[in-house]
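Input set for joint prediction.
Command: fold jointly, output tokens.
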Amino acid sequence: MTKRRATITAVGHYAPPKVLTNAELEKMVDTNDEWIRTRTGVSERRILEQGATSDLAVGAIQKMLAHRKIEVTEIEIIIIATVTPDMFFPSTACVVQDKIGASNAWGFDLSGACSGFLYALVVGAQFIESGTASKVLVVGADKMSSIIDYTDRNTCILFGDGGGAVLLEPSEDPDYGLLDHRMYCDGSGGAFLYMKGGGSLNPSTHESIDKRMHYMYQDGKAVFKVAVKGMADVSAEIMQRNNLKGEDVAWLVPHQANLRIIDATADRMGLDRSKVMINIDRYGNTTAATIPLCLSEWWLEGKLRKGQNIVLASFGAGYTWGAALIKWSLENPTQS
Ligand code: COA
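tokens >
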């Protein structure tokens, strides 16, 4: 029996209009445009001034549905990858389900930090592959500005807000869609990238607020070392498992945390920079949104072709990391 595979049949993204430039950050913390660009690759990022993560998700879903004209009631499952849910509960998936009117869907949030979208994609694909569902909405969305300390130059320069959405459906041809994945986590990395306050370990108190525990913290140097190896290793592993060489891969879609990490991954894969999706310069690190944001932009620009091998790769808090191989099946929007 041939395997029922999950494939991406629609993509969409939403970036809020407000731009926060490096020049503006220079006025907020002791930093400069040159340092930010050379150390990270970021020139500007977007900020959601009003609203919450669910609004970023809904913006992306609406764009997606404008291309794949299904009834919203056909959506069966909604998975939202985020570290900045609207609230602890109800889940952002429930909020989104109500906002878009997906009255036949159930759903849940998934906490995988910067690997959240990849984790959610793989989870969503299981429902398709098992025959449990035929339309699964997978979203990566984060309002990072809600947990960033804009007095901390180590982190505030890196992150931005955004959302991306994909629809998973069964592939008509089993050679297309999500072909393989390798996912990892290592909880011993938790000490280097976290937000300590607000959970059951450190509930919100005046003291937790005074200690700035409701902002994200990152030991950038420590994370950089493992991220650069983790993302390159897992990307090389997915290629090896599938007997792929650099020339067989059309696109690398890397999590956008730091341009230097992206470059190291591309080098390890033997990929020319022209085959790497990079938009960190315009959006910074939008955590769970980076990969679908790239996919959506590149697809809209007509750069994705049916049959291309695409490698998605990420590394993030946890630590969490992974890579996935997709044979792209969605026709170019300029042809459809
Ligand atoms: N502007 C100017 N100087 C800054 C600065 C800023 N925004 N932030 C830090 N610096 C300073 C540091 O204080 C340090 O000064 P010192 O040498 O006098 O102590 C110097 O610049 C170098 O800092 P360092 O932390 O070594 O820089 P870096 O080259 O490692 O870059 C990061 C910092 C955060 C950009 C980088 O470590 C990184 O990208 N880390 C991994 C991010 C990641 O992958 N996260 C996982 C997914 S979220």
